[in-house]
Design brief:
Layout lengths: L8 H22 L12 H21 L10 H32 L7 H30 L10 H4 L4
Protein name: DUF3180 domain-containing protein
Keywords: Membrane, Transmembrane, Transmembrane helix
InterPro entries: DUF3180
């Protein structure tokens, strides 16, 4: 069985760009028929990003076997990595989508009444989605196992 690769920024960038292109085409086709976007609709991703960052820090201490922490079961760490990968991809897709909304409505700020409110919603969504990516990548980073020395005698500082 192959090893798990860590999320590459270029994979997230590709997802964001593709989502932005699709969202932009959809906005061109039907922005006028959309209801006004709630201003703080994107805050959910900010909360999720914060929770994942906190979970990553907690999990990191357990993986490194800090005093006073319980050891981590392998399945818990594997599930955390799966969550982190899925969250970073979802965040990248939403960064692309919110970016497309922002690029579409910002130039129309003074022309369209709905564009003013949608600009705020897109900005909040974009920042929150970026926070989700950050929290997810931190969680994924925290799930890495610490490097073990190859020679056990090197731990004590002497060679036998």
């Amino acid at each position: 069985m192959g090893s798990v690769r860590f999320t590459r920024p270029r994979d997230l960038a590709v997802a964001a760009v593709l989502a932005a292109l699709v969202a932009h085409l959809l906005l061109i086709a039907g922005y006028n028929s959309l209801p006004r976007l709630p201003a703080f609709v994107g805050l959910t991703f900010l909360v999720l990003g914060g929770v994942e960052a906190w979970f990553g820090s907690t999990l990191r201490a357990r993986i490194r076997r800090k005093p006073g922490t319980l050891p981590v079961e392998a399945l818990v760490a594997a599930r955390a990595v799966a969550l982190a990968k899925a969250s970073s991809l979802a965040g990248a897709i939403m960064v692309g989508a919110w970016g497309a909304v922002l690029l579409y409505v910002a130039p129309r700020f003074s022309d369209l009444e709905a564009a003013a409110g949608d600009t705020l919603a897109a900005t909040v969504g974009l920042v929150s989605s970026a926070a989700l990516i950050g929290g997810a990548l931190w969680l994924e980073h925290c799930c890495r196992t610490p490097e073990e020395p190859e020679d056990p005698d090197k731990i004590n500082g002497f060679r036998g």
